[in-house]
Design goal:
- By secondary structure, the chain is mainly alpha-helical.
- The chain contains 10 helices and 4 strands; from the N terminus they run αααββααααβααβα.
- The chain has a two-stranded antiparallel ribbon with strand order 1-2.
- Strand 1 and strand 2 form a beta hairpin.
- Helix 4 runs antiparallel to helix 9.
- It is elongated, with a radius of gyration of 19 Å.
């Protein structure tokens, strides 16, 4: 049975993000095919996709290698997310389906319960599912794809500290869903902007000397008016 290239692509991408394939290391079709138990054809297709996404580069005399992003490139990703996550929430308020709302509300209930009990290990995956579903609810395949790629790349380049106030963080998730459910696109955008900006402060670059990069990105943004967000 032929394994689809997108499944191989997902497996290689996940291993790059997890650090199994280190930055700058070679990615040979033969070894990858053996590792993932597939032929070289889906591996070749997957590498082309990953190159287009920025995870892989092709070097002369070396072939495909894991990309080595600069600190500036990593910083740009956080700035892009600060702009696009609120846009996605705003669009979700206009285009979400009842199925999206059901999943979002279920995730908020689970997240708030885990946060109250201090189950921090569960919160990271729940947070990822929440933002993935919110991106899908925006009704724009291009924006959904961009937000998904941003999350993958940021997870690859940054170590993320657990939020200092998980209960408050999940209360913000709940407020976002409430705004989306009411179709209030401006409030959904505003709350998500505040939420994303706060989350950015917990990101620390995994490479180079950019330990304070996320803090500088956060401080470089225009102040967000938070008045009225907690009523």
């Amino acid at each position: 049975m032929r394994i689809p290239a997108h499944s191989v692509c997902t497996a290689i991408r996940d291993d790059i993000v997890a650090g199994v394939h280190e930055r700058g290391s070679r990615l040979t079709e033969e070894l990858l095919a053996r590792r993932y138990g597939v032929s070289r054809v889906p591996v070749r297709e997957a590498l082309r996709t990953l190159e287009a996404e920025g995870f892989v580069v092709t070097r002369r005399h070396a072939g495909a290698c894991v990309a080595e992003p600069t600190e500036q490139e990593a910083s740009d990703l956080l700035e892009m997310r600060l702009l696009l996550e609120p846009l996605g929430a705003s669009r979700a308020a206009q285009r979400r389906t009842e199925a999206h709302l059901k999943v979002l509300r279920g995730l908020v209930r689970l997240g708030q319960e885990r946060a109250r009990r201090g189950h921090s290990d569960d919160l990271r995956s729940l947070d990822g599912w929440f933002h993935e579903t919110l991106a899908q609810a925006c009704g724009s395949p291009a924006l959904t794809s961009t937000l998904t790629q941003l999350r993958h790349k940021i997870a690859w380049m940054y170590a993320v500290e657990a939020p200092a106030g998980p209960v408050e963080s999940w209360a913000e998730h709940g407020a976002i869903v409430d705004a989306v459910a009411r179709g209030d696109s401006e409030r959904a955008r505003a709350i998500t902007a505040v939420h994303t900006e706060r989350a950015t402060a917990g990101h620390r670059l995994r490479f180079g000397s950019g330990g304070e990069r996320a803090e500088r990105v956060r401080n470089s943004q225009h102040a967000v008016n938070t008045s009225g967000l907690r009523h």
